[in-house]
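Example (one chain per record):
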Amino acid sequence: MSRDQSRRQFDAEFKREAVRLSQEPGRTLASVARDLGISETNLWRWRKQFAEGGDSVFVGTGHLSPEQEEARRLRRENANLREERDILKKALGIFSGRRR
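Predicted structure:
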């Protein structure tokens, strides 16, 4: 791919519709891909993702699945708790040093 060519991006609705079309009786994956102007590999990957993720798949750029959002929230909470712990350790060291 040359520098001036950009990768084609497809929105979630397009992907869902492509998957739906590819699952219709009498339609082949190859014919749907050809009709939509996409590669069979893309359509195959989208079908696999949809089978594994259901409605939460194809959330788009910047949007996270519920599992990814929960993992992100837990990492943030973990970082905050570590910071609070470190602050308390320093405070304990300061206060216990003054009493001696």
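Caption: The chain is about 65% helix and 0% strand.
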